[in-house]
Amino acid sequence: MDQKGNLYILLNVPARLTIYVFSPEGIFRGKLLGVKDSVDRITILDRGILYALSQDTHYIYGFRVDLETNL
What we know:
Blueprint: E1 7-11, E2 18-22, E3 28-33, E4 39-44, E5 49-54, E6 60-64
Antiparallel strand pairs: 1-2, 2-3, 4-5, 5-6
C-alpha cells in the first residue's frame, strides 16, 4: 500500500511485470506494466518509487509512480 492507501497487487505472470492498482475503497484505478521479467516481490516508498525484485536474476527494478493520479 502507498501513503494514500492505494493497494498494489502483483500478478505473478512470468513473462512481464504486471501490477493492478486499487483505491482504498476497492475501486480499480489502473494497471502498471513493466519489464519482461518474472518479479517475485514489490514495495512502494512514500516518495512514489515502486521497487520490484526479479525472481530469477535478483535484479531490483525501480519505477516512479505518480501518487497524484495513482499511476
